[in-house]
Amino acid sequence: MNQSAATQAWDLDAVERASDARQEPLWLRQQRQQAFQLYHETPPAYWDRNQLPFPWERLQWQAAQGQRSPASMQLRLISPEPTLLPPGVIVTDLVQAVRQHPDLVRRYLFASALSLGDERVTDSHTVALQACLWQNGLFVYVPARVKVELPLTVARGPGLGVPADPHAGKAGESVGGPTPKDGWVQAQLEHTLIVLGEGASLDFVQQDQEEASQPGAAALTPSGATGGHFLGQSWEVYLGAGAHLRAAFVQDLPTWLGANPEQARPVYALRTGRILLERDSQLELIEAEMGAAWARSQWTAELVGEGATAAAYGLFFGVGSQRLDLDLTLSNRAAHTKAEMAVRGVVAGRAQGIFHGLGYVHQAAPASSNNQQTAALVLNKNARADVVPGLKIDEDEVQAGHGAAVGQVDEEALFYLMSRGLSRTQATQLMVEGFLTAWWDRLPLPQVRAVLQELSLQKLGG
Asked: Are 186 and 8 in contact (CB under 8 A)?
């Protein structure tokens, strides 16, 4: 281990130095210490032990020296203008929120949906890592009975400005993958806390995408060589009684990042979200995984209040040598709750897409429903899609079901379209559009549908 790497190792002393540099309050320091202990006491999840491209000990954690993350990687409010938000609504950097709204943040931060030590949190190991090391993030608060009419849209700062994947050929075909596992990985960890009071409503859109407006920039590339770049994100969402949230999270980070092709390293994204729904609250969630060399997204919605409803719409779209892993769980924990899930996947090149879905109806949830429908389209023989739906039913008086299908593109249909003057790329785009149209039509946020349609065309070379 070289000296610079050693000074950035994240032990408890490093965590405390970061707290000192930020002048964090005692309660937050104690929470980070609790998370550090929980991380070491909690065994990693199966995917962590077998699929993570690097060991956690290899994280180069900038905040260990009290540094802020690069401005180009911080979440920023894109729209609407803050002056257009209703009175009482708070949208601010989480670091600032700790200083400006300490009592409010302390009530919910890793104490509501992602409560540390809560047995219902399925991946406590990763959650503890996020709670211990988060560097920045976002705090959104909507008071009781306040309705935010304009969609709240956040995105990265000036842009990542990265070169093309140096290991990719035409049409997304790749001759390489996210190797090395033994190099240091530069980390950016953030946490978003969203709280809706009783009867409040909000439309929220977060886009993690590459911006082309900063050519030559390398926001994440450190001075020394690394084995990759890691973006760890966690979301903690609390919906009070009768609240309504429509939320979309679109991940289209670059697969490789660097100042030039010779310095490019793979980008890894790990996203964990948990949503707590009180009585009669409503959730409509869109989760799209389209970028990064390796990405895993795990979302859980807990319907703990009677009459709560949740609808989740998932998408994974991989090309080249991407590996995209999407995990959705909808959990009925109270009577008369309703949950439904619709997921689509597309893979091309040598990409691998994996979906795990779980509908869980607990014993205390009579007269509830939980349904899921999943389908994936494989565009060539080297790509792979694995779809694993699941149901767990502990209550008799319920309605539940699931369906899953994985199919390859129809070569005869492609030939027919090409015989009518279309190129293979155009014919493939037409078939993918037909496959996704019914799913797109169900999305609750029209502006997100337009974004996903455009990104899909770009992924296929259009």
From this structure: no
